[in-house]
Specification:
With 329 residues, this protein is α/β, with parallel strands linked by helices. The chain is built from eight helices and 16 strands. It has two domains: 1-121 and 167-217, Thiamin pyrophosphokinase, catalytic domain (Rossmann fold, 3-Layer(aba) Sandwich), CATH 3.40.50; 218-240 and 259-329, Thiamin pyrophosphokinase, thiamin-binding domain (Jelly Rolls). It catalyses: thiamine + ATP = thiamine diphosphate + AMP + H(+).
Length: 329
């Protein structure tokens, strides 16, 4: 069984035991009434042109001079010169990394992955005097320097215990699904492959598995593990229609009544690696050992009907949930 995913933690940007990193991608992401600031993540990485949108978002709130990303990385062919100059003037590292075989999205994820231990060390309640802060990414090197010597047994034991005690690092990927269809497919492709690689590397290092969440203007999308997945979906807008006296003059429910919603009821479960069979619980149309594949039948426009839902499949599948209307543009 995989670890539960709690969408309310993600959408509130209050993670309790989930410590996030964020990766900002183009195109522009508007999340109305959402307090998206660098302070909600341990590290905020802008992938090239994502810096333009981060800057514009902060400027619209009058915070462009106080709220900055941790760093900007990519081939730097999309960032506006004025935005680059602005962040360089505030000592924000801008890393040029040219690689025709990886996207700026991959470069940003590679950086976060290579520095996971340093990022998570910022959550330690009582760091030792010798602990160093997250190193400044002043070069394009995306992997940690090799050790200068073999660790002593006591050091190895301490490091092993530290890894076990570390919380998972969840990565929020903001933007990336708007605009061109081929780019949207590219982001879904990378979400799938990078999630699998992310989990494999975390398993190899014996750290608790985090997750990657792709948040667009309309949805929150992530990859479910093979096996049984438990997803917490509280405060989804699945209530029965309101009586007429609770509606406004346009026949809509009161805005104040919808302020607590995090999700709409719509959900999709998409197979990405060929035919598989899914079993679900907590949806309007539950299925058992239901065959699904692209080119055959797929589960779209199903409805969340419970605060906790379950999805089981022998292979990883994509889950996408519609964000509440109050988050949308």
């Amino acid at each position: 069984m995989s670890l539960p995913s709690n969408t309310s933690f993600i959408l509130h940007f209050t993670f309790y035991n989930l410590h996030p990193a964020s990766c900002i991608l183009p195109p522009t992401l508007y999340l109305r009434k959402t307090q998206l600031t660098p302070h909600t993540a341990l590290i905020t990485v802008c992938a090239d042109g994502g810096a333009n949108h981060f800057y514009d978002m902060m400027r619209s709130r009058g915070r462009e001079s106080t709220d900055h990303p941790t760093l900007i990385i990519g081939d730097l062919d999309s960032i506006r010169p004025s935005v680059r100059s602005h962040y360089e003037a505030h000592d924000i590292p801008v890393i040029y990394h040219h690689d025709d075989y990886s996207t700026d999205f991959q470069k940003a994820l590679n950086y976060i992955r290579a520095h996971t231990d340093e990022i998570l060390s910022k959550t330690s309640p009582s760091p030792s005097p010798s602990s160093s802060p997250l190193p400044s990414p002043s070069s394009s090197k995306l992997s940690p320097s090799p050790p200068t010597g073999e660790p002593q047994p006591q050091q190895h034991q301490h490091q092993h215990q530290h890894q076990q005690d570390q919380p998972p690092l969840s990565i929020l990927i903001l933007g990336g699904l708007g605009g061109r269809v081929d780019q949207a497919f590219s982001q879904i492709h990378h979400l799938y492959t990078q999630t699998q690689r992310h989990r494999h590397l975390q398993s190899a290092s014996q750290t608790k598995p985090g997750n990657l969440y792709l948040i667009s203007e309309e949805s929150i999308t992530f990859i479910l593990h093979s096996g049984k997945n438990i997803i917490h979906t509280p405060r989804a807008n699945r209530a029965a229609p309101k009586p007429d006296d609770e509606k406004d003059g346009n026949g809509n429910g009161n805005e104040s009544g919808s302020e607590g919603y995090l999700l709409e009821e719509n959900v999709g479960i998409i197979p990405l690696s060929g035919m598989t069979r899914i079993t679900t619980k907590g949806f309007q149309w539950d299925v058992e050992e239901w065959e699904t594949e692209i080119g055959g039948q797929i589960s779209t426009s199903n409805h969340v009907q419970a605060d906790v839902v379950e999805v089981s499949a022998p292979v990883p599948v994509l889950l996408t949930l519609e964000l509440a209307g109050r988050f949308k543009r």
